[in-house]
Amino acid sequence: MFGCLVAGRLVQTDSVQVASDKFVFNLADYENVNHVVVFMLGTVPFPAGMGGAVYFSFPDPLSGAPVWQLLGFITNEKPSAIFKISGLKAGEGGAHPFGVMASAAPSVAQVGVSVESLDQLAQQIPVSSAAVSSVDTFMQFTQKMLDSLYNFASSFAVSQAQMTPNPTETFIPSSCVLKWYENFQRRMAFSYNKAFYLK
Question: At a CB cut-off of 8 Å and minimum separation 6, what does 81 contact?
């Protein structure tokens, strides 16, 4: 019914059913995992009015007991979700529907899916640090590219006193490049905010 994906690893579809409406994936070497994707396989939909709360559990560094944190949810209408787990804090667990489960090995975490009503899912509050940035990858690439260009061009800056006359070279004042760069950043931020509010 469910799958779990971590970058650089094979897709996991071998969830362990620990109750009629509870499923768990074991996630080895979780310390080296930044994001996890949980998705429906498309073979069995949720019953009408139901969805899946997605939880993450890792061993508490002091007691070794599992600490569960709500990441978010998936539904028939939203059959997959990506969660950031690298920012979760140890020991900050909350209420969870998995009951008392045996602790996994020290470097093994668990991703759990609990089938619950959509009304119940709407009332739950996920851990804020699990949310993935909504800034799209093109904007991130563009910002990094422009930072790189500005830093590269600035590394060649010389003062007027250091300049030697060269009739084959054209010089552009660095203040002009900086002004363009700042205006571009403002336009990008405005475009992103406008697109975000139109969603």
Answer: 37, 38, 39, 54, 71, 72, 73, 74
pTM of the model: 0.64
Band of residue 119 on the pLDDT scale cut at 50, 70, 90 = very high
Query: pLDDT at position 86, please?
Result: 82
Model confidence pLDDT, tens digit, residues 137-165: 666 777 777 778 877 877 877 887 888 88
d(CA 48, CA 148): 50
Give the Cα separation of 29 and 158 in Å (integer): 50
Number of C-beta neighbours around residue 72 at 10 A: 21
Query: Domain segments of the chain: what residues?
Result: 2-123, 134-190
d(CA 151, CA 144): 10
Which residues sit opposite 19 in a β-bridge?
22
Asked if 77 contacts 101 with a C-beta cutoff of 8 angstroms, the reply is no
What dihedral angle (degrees, nearest 10) is formed by the CA atoms of 117, 121, 122, 124? 140
What CA–CA distance (Å, rounded) separates 2 from 27? 14
Q: Which amino acid is at 84?
A: K
Please enumerate in sequence order all residues whose Cβ is within 8 A of that of 157, keeping only pairs 6 or more positions apart, or say none.
174
Q: CA-CA-CA-CA torsion for 66, 50, 21, 104, nearest 10 degrees? A: -20
